[in-house]
Amino acid sequence: MRCFNHQDVQAIGTCKACHKGLCPECANDLGHGLACAGKHEEVVETYNAIIQRNARVYSAAPKNILIAPIFYLFMGLIFVYFGYKDDSMTGLPFIMGVGFIVFSIVIFVRNYSLFKSNSKN
Asked: pLDDT tens digits, residue range 37-47?
């Protein structure tokens, strides 16, 4: 591959923003990617900041797989209790409680399978 600006010079890499081939004279190495010197440094720095923030958020996500299921289970148990207490297991509170409990199980299984399969990669 040749440099986009200097067709007679071999490129050492591509700009992370525009993906054009760059020679040593045109490239600015920002540590986590090359940028067109004087043109795309700010864009590439923004890309790198976004990637770093996303990596931090994604690494914290598996620790939080129980928060939503526990909340839905708690709400389900409350609704089931009040529905059962009123002796109407076919009433709206009881049915909503069962729905919340089923939903909590579905959310837990989905979160567990999603984050356990991604942690192996």
From this structure: 888 889 999 99
Instruction: Tell me which residue has tokens 């009123």.
Output: 86
Pick left, alpha or beta for residue 38 (phi over 0 → left; psi -120 to 50 → alpha; otherwise beta).
left
3-state secondary structure of 28: strand
Among residues 45, 52, 55, 51, the alpha carbon closest in space to that of 15 is found at: 45
